[in-house]
Design brief:
The structure is a homodimer. By secondary structure, chain A is an alpha/beta fold. Helix content of chain A is 40%, strand content 12%. In chain A, strands 4-3-5-6 form a 4-stranded parallel sheet. In chain A, helix 4 links the parallel strand 3 and strand 4. The relative contact order of chain A is 0.08.
């Protein structure tokens, strides 16, 4: 694309570096900002800059936080004996929005992926192992994405955690057909596994918070 | 959505104010920027800030420019007797990328839309009328979107331009079925108009730059 302005070109290049944003969308965003007042754009850039420069991570669960402890770890009403291991803040938000989980979290910051050069040392694994040694943990729930990398990470973590405390209960999210989906569109692997790991009918009558 | 951090919440709010970006996408962009180095994010915010604060508009065609004249108006090899009237920079880029148009442009900055409170005074209309009075113009091509607002704008501009110079040729983009489309999916209005304004077959054999 031939822009009439170097300033526009650079701003478009910056936006199109963001995930899922191509050149055309980037140009649309740039032209939108150009129509806004300078004050509005100053607030936009300032808030993004503040976010990057002032952000802290919770010393306990490694989640993004404005303080030493995030508001979930600081909440004494939550069950601190149950840790849900997730990949990032988005997963915390997803689980929190179900309003079913009462425990606390541990944010790994990713999953083990040798192809991308991400091993346990690049993730918040040691912090999780330290928590198991210091805190009175009953159960650790692996809520990682049902992918090859997610499963590898679950396998690796389970082994490490069991080495520290063989009696800790380690569980993972149930796998099966999604609620509301049409059976004919479910992929073969999921359907085969859901069939093999079928459960007694009565269990479906139990409400999720029991 | 319950974010664990006020800084994240504010940055997400800023991003989701952009057109076509919802809360989930905004969060994805924020978390992406959070993973980048502070230098990368500083360049991001700086370039957007520079773009907004330092941008100029071409004194002739009102297009976005880094200088007094944009690089199209400053180009002596272009046909300055033909003006193509467009809505914004995106349309200039779209027409330039066809590599067929040799004339210059005039950027209106929008189209007349009473519903949105946009009248001729909010657009670069007077600048266009002034150009017709001062410059030796042969033809003015209306390349506005084929919408109700676009057609209203074409009608209004044509009348005003004819008042100044009744001999100036005013044309508009051809309307009809799009190249490569399936006929059965063309909307009724377009198909009816394309039928009514059908052209001799030989004209299609003429290459577009003749």
């Amino acid at each position: 694309m031939n822009f009439s302005s170097k300033l526009i070109e650079q701003a478009v290049a910056e936006f199109s570096r963001l995930p899922g944003i191509g050149k055309k969308t980037a140009l649309r965003l740039v032209l939108h900002l150009l129509k806004q007042s300078t004050e509005t754009v100053d607030i936009f850039t300032q808030r993004i800059s503040d976010m990057r420069h002032q952000i802290k991570y919770c010393q306990k669960c490694c989640n993004i936080s404005d303080d030493v402890l995030c508001n979930i770890c600081a909440n004494t009403h939550r069950k601190h004996e149950t840790i849900c291991v997730v990949e990032n803040l988005r997963d915390v938000i997803a689980i929190e929005s179900t309003q079913q989980y009462q425990g606390v979290y541990h944010v790994l910051g990713g999953v083990i992926s040798p192809v991308d050069g991400i091993g346990p040392d690049q993730l918040n694994v040691q912090a999780l192992l330290n928590r198991l040694q210091k805190e009175p943990i009953d159960e650790i729930i692996m809520a990682l994405s049902p992918t090859m990398e997610g499963d590898t990470t679950i396998f690796y973590l389970s082994r490490k955690l069991h080495e520290i405390n063989p009696s800790v209960k380690i569980s993972a999210l149930a796998r099966g057909v999604a609620f509301g989906g049409e059976l004919e569109y479910v992929d073969e692997l999921t359907l085969a596994r859901a069939m093999a790991t079928r459960r007694p009918y009565e269990q479906f009558l139990v409400s999720p918070d029991k």
